[in-house]
TrEMBL record:
<dbReference type="GO" id="GO:0032259">
    <property type="term" value="P:methylation"/>
</dbReference>
<keyword id="KW-0808">Transferase</keyword>
<feature type="domain" description="O-methyltransferase C-terminal">
    <location>
        <begin position="123"/>
        <end position="312"/>
    </location>
</feature>
<feature type="active site" description="Proton acceptor">
    <location>
        <position position="242"/>
    </location>
</feature>
<dbReference type="InterPro" id="IPR036390">
    <property type="entry name" value="WH_DNA-bd_sf"/>
</dbReference>
<keyword id="KW-0489">Methyltransferase</keyword>
<dbReference type="Pfam" id="PF08100">
    <property type="entry name" value="Dimerisation"/>
</dbReference>
<dbReference type="InterPro" id="IPR012967">
    <property type="entry name" value="COMT_dimerisation"/>
</dbReference>
<protein>
    <submittedName>
        <fullName>O-methyltransferase</fullName>
    </submittedName>
</protein>
<feature type="domain" description="O-methyltransferase dimerisation">
    <location>
        <begin position="17"/>
        <end position="83"/>
    </location>
</feature>
<dbReference type="InterPro" id="IPR001077">
    <property type="entry name" value="COMT_C"/>
</dbReference>
<dbReference type="InterPro" id="IPR016461">
    <property type="entry name" value="COMT-like"/>
</dbReference>
<dbReference type="Pfam" id="PF00891">
    <property type="entry name" value="Methyltransf_2"/>
</dbReference>
<dbReference type="GO" id="GO:0046983">
    <property type="term" value="F:protein dimerization activity"/>
</dbReference>
<dbReference type="GO" id="GO:0008171">
    <property type="term" value="F:O-methyltransferase activity"/>
</dbReference>
<dbReference type="InterPro" id="IPR029063">
    <property type="entry name" value="SAM-dependent_MTases_sf"/>
</dbReference>
<keyword id="KW-0949">S-adenosyl-L-methionine</keyword>
Length: 332
């Protein structure tokens, strides 16, 4: 952004140049090329299939932002911050910023925010689930990105609930089985099933096989709007409900309640909106859902109401690693 006649903090917040140049760098894997010792602009352009002078201008801005350095004209190196853009860097930032991945593409939908605020409807053409069903590579990238979040939540869930009396667990919308795998490895007495679309379930079965869990873990390729595998002790719904509007989130909870019956439990793990101390990570996710899926982040009171409409009551609420909260439901 050019210098503007307002406070620098607001200018920094409003800037779109740096977010987009970071995404271009991530998509082109510039940090990995630099880490491999490729430093000259011409060779970087050749390897990335880009226009050298245009690429130089992108790199020059990222030097100004302390992501890269330019020790001599036209020769670039990684700064400490730039190392986070390498594949498998801290937090896996590169794949989340890559414009070729599911989440990278979804982020661009925020350019439709004004229309969504005016209409109250998600942006036209932003049906995330149809896009994933139509493109297996895109679907796999989504599963991998969601798996990194599930892996971060898994230790808290494994330690934050009494699994001693549980025999069978169903992970509703559990993607490629990362969360269920972690639970079963942490608690060897558990058996489990993950429910999701065809692509994620194929990946989950491979994950279970690789972890030596095929005797204890299975996958059910189906919609979670259809009847779920019945009779499990616990139904886990982790990071799913915020993807959906109240009608659809309620239907997911109702299916879990139906399958759990009078003796099972439904565990919902979500980032809750806390009006007194809003977290930018949660409000950011809330707006992204508003634009793309019509879903939303919810305060605890709204989760209670959704559960009640599905015939569930809250048994417990427990804060896990911020900003995640575990809510235990049972039949009313």
């Amino acid at each position: 952004m050019v210098d503007a006649p307002w406070a620098s903090r607001l200018q920094d917040l409003a800037d779109l140049t740096t977010p987009m140049t970071l995404r271009v760098a991530a998509t082109l894997r510039l940090a990995d090329h630099l880490a491999d010792g490729v430093s000259g602009i011409d060779e970087l352009a050749r390897r990335t299939g880009t226009h050298a002078r245009s690429l130089h201008r992108v790199l020059r801005h990222l030097v100004a932002m302390n992501v890269f350095t330019e020790p001599s004209p036209g020769s670039f190196e990684l700064a400490d911050l730039g190392k986070e853009l390498c594949d498998h860097g801290p937090g896996d930032a590169r794949t989340w910023l890559d414009l070729g991945t599911a989440v990278g593409r979804v982020d661009l939908a925020l350019t439709n925010l004004l229309d969504v605020v005016r209409t109250g409807e998600p942006a036209p053409g932003e049906n995330t689930w149809s896009a994933l069903d139509a493109d297996r590579a895109l679907s796999d990238s989504f599963d991998d990105q969601m798996a990194s979040g599930a892996a971060a939540k898994a230790p808290g869930l494994a330690a934050g609930y009494d699994w001693g009396t549980v025999e069978r667990v169903v992970d509703v919308g559990g993607g490629n089985g990362t969360l269920l795998t972690a639970l079963l490895l942490a608690h060897p007495h558990l058996r489990g099933t993950v429910v999701d679309r065809d692509g994620p379930i194929d990946n989950a079965r491979r994950k279970f096989d690789g972890a030596g869990l095929t005797a204890r873990a299975s996958g059910a390729a189906q919609s979670f709007f259809d009847p779920l595998p019945a009779g499990a002790d616990v139904y886990v719904i982790c990071g799913v409900l915020h993807d959906w509007d109240d009608e659809h989130a309620g239907r997911i909870l109702a299916r879990a309640a139906e399958a759990a019956g009078s003796h099972g439990r439904v565990l919902v793990l979500e980032s809750l909106l806390e009006p007194s101390s809003a977290r930018s990570s949660t409000t950011d996710m809330d707006l992204l859902m508003m634009v793309t899926t019509g879903g939303r982040a919810r305060p605890f009171e709204d989760m209670v109401a959704l559960g009640a409409a599905a015939g569930l009551k809250v048994l417990s609420r427990k804060a896990l690693t911020a900003p995640h909260t575990l809510i235990e439901f049972a039949a009313r």
